[in-house]
Each structure stands twice: as structure tokens, then as C-alpha cells.
Amino acid sequence: MRLQPEHLATLLAIVDTGTFDAAARRLHVTASAVSQRVKALEAEVGQVVVARASPCRPTAAGEALVRLARQQGLLEAEALAGLSSGAEGRVDLPVAVNADSMSTWFGAVFGDVAGWPDVVIRVHVEDQDHSARLLRSGEVLAAVTSDPSPVQGCSTEPLVTMRYLPVARPELVERHRAGSGIDWGAMPLVKFNGKDDIQQRILERHRASSAPPTHEVPDGTGFATAVRAGLGWGALLTSQLDSALDSGELVRLGTRDHVDVQLYWQRWRLPSEHLDRLSASVRAAAATVTSPRTARPATPARRHTRR
Which residues fall within 8 angstroms of residue 117, CB to CB, at 6 or more apart? Predict the structure, then answer.
């Protein structure tokens, strides 16, 4: 069995754009042609390769084909880039980055990419605990992840440790004093969304007697703004605190409470100069982050989709 390149390219376009119609526009063909190509590909492999949903997503069988199509596309684009000085020779680099990194150290990577006329970068903002799915599905070439175990066909290396401190406005803390401590079951908290469990881990450590009022602010900047405004307490990165602790704008809840999250860079093992260049940029940007000095073993935790 020999897979047709145009069939693989069509599947990749569907996954990248999310719909058959959008894929047709990208490929400059009709939606009917896209549908026919997918049906032909499914007949070739004997399995359904794309879930007709909104957005369309590859099935387990389709993921293997998307990875193949992405690899072929990268190597082909690099070959063409060596032959062309125009925009048509640019190499597409889709990557997954967690939102906390996006709002802090990853910006330096954009500064590097801005000087690369032969590259376009497409960032998927994804929780670091779930970015491995995008690597497995072939939707991205590389990812910032908290999983040290490489996805099949990928290499992994440690990048940076992100430290989170539970903080709140001092007046919020005073309103919820309980003797010499805090009434953790009554003091409101802010979390990013339903998957964000860092605050919950801190509550469990302090044996909160009940579930406190919980606000959800699913925006990186908005989350920090909500905590600084006194909407509730929350766990912020040390780099997001600036002088807030020194000025008294925020107070730390517990002098030793913190959560450390180790991040890794996973990328496909491909002989790609462009992917090598991007990896070097990510490595250099992460190296600018000051690693926290841990006074005692940090509580292992997972950060879900925050910023």
C-alpha cells in the first residue's frame, strides 16, 4: 500500500483548520474534493481517520497519518526553503506552549523568530499536562510540557522550574482570620478554570473544613489582576509578583507554601535545521528564568491551562 501525498496533505489541512470547508479553501479545491480524498484515504487504510466533529479531529488511526504528513511537510518545506527566497519558502513550525510560559519567558522566542524570514510559527496555547496529546496527534512539532517521558518519536530535555506562591490582598486575609491562622474554608479563591488544581492542593494541605467561594478567571493577565484586586487568593508565579510582596500590596499565605512545576521541551526527532534553531531559542529563553531555591522538597503539583 502506498499512501497518496495529496490525501495526507488533505488530512493535515483538515486537522489544522478544523473543518472540511476551511481545508478546501487552504488547498484551493472544492469541499467535495476534500471529502472524496478523505474517503479514498480511509479506503486505503481501512479505518476512519478523522472524526467529523466541530472542530474535526484525527482518530487514533488518523493521528499516525497526521504525524507522517507533518514530518513529510516539514522536510519538504525545508528543501523548498533552500531553493527559494520568497514567502512561499517559509517553513511552518506549530508548537504547543502553556499559557504561564507564554505570559513570561517565552516572549523572548518571538523576538528571535521575528528575525527569521524563512519561518512562520503557530502557537497552540495548551496546558503543559496535556500538550503531549498534540505531539502524539501530530498537530505540533514541539511542546513545552510538564511530562518528562518523551512521546514516541520525540526527545525531551528539562527547561525551567516554575514556582507558584499563594498570595492575597492583606485586607482579604484579615477578614478571614481564624485565631492565629486563616479560615481556608471561607476565604474566597481564584482559579483559572475547572482544571486548575494548584489552589485545591494548598487547601488540602491546610485541611480546609469546607469548599470556599471560588471565582474562575480563565485569562492569564486577568487572573493576576483578579488576585491583586482582592477578588480572592490565588497562586501566582514569582515572576508575576514584581514588588507586590515588598510593597505590601499582596501578602504571602504561609512562609513556606509554594508549588514547583518542572517544565520540559519535547520535540520530534527529525533532521530539521529550523526545528533545531527553534529549540536553541527556547533553551536560551528558558535559561533566563531564575530557578527557585527550594528550602524543602516542593509539593508535586500539576498546573492546568493557567495563563
Answer: 90
What digits encode the pLDDT tens for the residues 193-219? 887 888 988 898 888 878 999 999 988
Bridge-based pairing of strands 50-51 and 259-268 is unpaired
Q: Give the mean pLDDT of 108-123.
A: 94
Domain holding 250, by residue range, is 163-259
Task: Indicate the residue type of 84.
Answer: S
Q: Which of these, 31, 90, 38, lies nearest to 59 by C-alpha position?
A: 38
Domain count of the fold of the chain: 2
pTM of structure? 0.76
What are the cell numbers at 87?
Answer: 514567502
- Is residue 298 scored above 70 in pLDDT? no
C-alpha cell read off for 255: 512562609
Q: Are 69 and 9 in contact (CB under 8 A)?
A: yes
Q: How confident is the model at residue 86 (pLDDT cuts 50, 70, 90)?
A: low
Whether residue 221 contacts residue 161, with contact meaning beta carbons closer than 8 Å, is answered with: no
- pLDDT above 90 covers a percentage of the chain that reads 53
Is 268 contained in some domain?
no
The answer for residues whose C-beta is within 8 angstroms of residue 37's C-beta and 6 or more apart is 4, 6, 7, 10
CATH code of residue 174? 3.40.190.10
